[in-house]
Amino acid sequence: MDKRLIKQGGAERKAFEELCREAFHCPQDAWRALEAFRGTLEVLVVHGAEVVERRHYENAGKPAADAVPESIGYHLDGALAAPISVRGRRLIRRACFILATNELDEGVLADPEVLWAYKGQSGKVEGRFRFLKDPMFLASTLYLKRVERVEALLMVMTVCLLVYAALEYRIRRTLAEHEASVPDQKGKPTRRPSAKWVFELFMDVHLLTITTEKTIRRLVLNLREELKKLLELMGPAYMEQYS
User: Fold this and answer.
1) Which of 20, 29, 76, 115 could join 24 in a cystine, given CB atoms 3.0 to 4.6 angstroms apart?
2) How many of the other CB atoms lie within 10 Å of CB of 215?
3) Which of 64-78, 133-147, 223-237 has the lowest mean pLDDT?
């Protein structure tokens, strides 16, 4: 926040210097320009502002006593300051955030519990939506005009994430109960793989169908031993899909 304040203050200082270099036809124009400029300030304030008359002569150097100025311009002058109260208000604003809930009975859900539930989402719920930023998801290509279709897509995505999270939980619980592991991205054993990584482990597994005049034979290819072990631990329902 301090870096942004310094950057914004520098921009406002340069803008004030440009305003002070501008020549106005009369003092009233200068004061009106100053009031308009003050409305654009967010970090700094103008102190000791005044309008200075400057006479411009045709020839350079000190003018003669009876010389008539070619033009007269009115310039703004003053000092800029950064009030401490501005920084204090911004600190308070950045330290505050709004949490909303449909449960209005504090006896059922107190304020500290709302905050606890909100923080608990970062690693359990909100983290599941990271795939929306993945370039492979191509979220920018989705376009739904009607609100009902947007809501329907959100419902489908939420159900998919629910299944994804449940499967990940079951995989991790099964590995922990049997003190087993699967290789992680670096080839080291882990008992807490993500469901996405487990899916990638099974990407090389293919189903080959051999059809003859009399029979249809199906073979599962590239089912490595560690993957077969994981399926056995998960239970017969999982093993049947690859048998």
Assistant:
1) 29
2) 7
3) 133-147
Is there a contact between 195 and 167 (Cβ–Cβ < 8 Å)? yes
What is the C-alpha separation between 201 and 185, in angstroms, rounded? 10
Sequence-distant (≥ 6) Cβ neighbours of residue 147 within 8 angstroms: none
| Claim: this prediction has a pTM higher than 0.85 | no
Dist. CA 211–CA 126, nearest whole Å: 46
Cβ 233 vs Cβ 171: under 8 Å = no
61: tokens are 């150097």
Count the Cβ atoms, other than its own, within 10 Å of residue 34: 20
* Residues in a beta bridge with 207: 220
Backbone phi, then psi, for 199, in 5-degree steps?
A: -60, -40
**pLDDT (mean) for 157-180:** 90
Q: Which helix (H) or strand (E) element contains residue 189?
A: strand 189-190
